[in-house]
Amino acid sequence: MDNEVKNQDLNWEERLNHFEHWVNENKKVLTYVVGGLFAVVAAYLAFTKLYLEPKAAEATNQMFMAEKYFAEDSLNLALNGDGNYSGFLQIMDDYKWSEAANLSHYYAGVIFLRQGKFEDAKEHLKDFKGKDKMVTNMANGGLGDAYSELGKMDEAIDYYKKAAYHFENELTTPMFLKKAGMLLEKQNKSEEAKKLYEEIKLKYPNTVEGREMDKYIARVGGVSS
């Protein structure tokens, strides 16, 4: 047993000696590597502090007016700007790495949906990377609307289900489940539609959609109660 312990100690000493020898032989290379890593980190921090943060502040300032126009239903001004302030499309180009640019994709997608430009709506809503759960629901629901208008029913149903289940709540979940169910009806998939209608009735009985589900269930051959 003592011999085993001694052998292990010798092995560790040997390894440490090898490591020290390797470090001594490669000091110059290691210095360059460590120095390079510090330089990369310093450059990233400087880029963030001196470029990204000021740009993000600018973008937020520009975004304020675009959102105001959107709220007032002045959709073209919200999208394209008014000459003094940028619209959502310009914000995307000028402030690519900012959250304002990301959110601009969502707004632009909604505007294009309202204007009947469904391909454009689809592209912008797909580019949006949602952080807020409710906004993500609405973006997925918007994609469902765009695909539905483009005649791509399977994709529309998938996005309506994503919108319903990503963050379940009484406001948007029954609304998007109902939309998915109605498209399934159009595809003559009555059983699948019925399951969604029954889910709305069971889980969300006090919502507008929940209260009207009896007639939808009856329509697809179910027995309402």
Describe the structure.
This protein has helices spanning 2-25, 27-71, 75-80, 88-94, 99-114, 118-127, 133-149, 153-165, 173-186, 190-203, 208-211, 213-219. The protein is flat and about 80 Å long. The longest helix has 45 residues, at 27-71. The chain has a domain at 130-224: Tetratricopeptide repeat domain (Serine Threonine Protein Phosphatase 5, Tetratricopeptide repeat). It has twelve helices and no strands. The model is unreliable at 42-52 (pLDDT under 50). It has 225 residues and is mainly α. Helix 9 (173-186) packs antiparallel against helix 10.
Rounded mean pLDDT is: 85
Percent range for β-strand residues: under 5%
Please give the count of helices. 12
Unreliable residue runs: 42-52
Shape: flat
Q: Tell me the CATH superfamily of the domain at 130-224.
A: Tetratricopeptide repeat domain
Helix-strand pattern: HHHHHHHHHHHH
CATH architecture term of the domain at 130-224: Alpha Horseshoe
For the secondary structure, the number of strands is 0
Write the CATH fold name of the domain at 130-224: Serine Threonine Protein Phosphatase 5, Tetratricopeptide repeat
Radius of gyration, in angstroms, nearest whole number: 29 Å
Q: What can be said about the biggest beta sheet?
A: none
Helix residue percentage: over 70%
Structural class: mainly alpha
> What is the straight-line distance between the termini?
80 Å
Task: Give the CATH level 1 class of the domain at 130-224.
Answer: Mainly Alpha
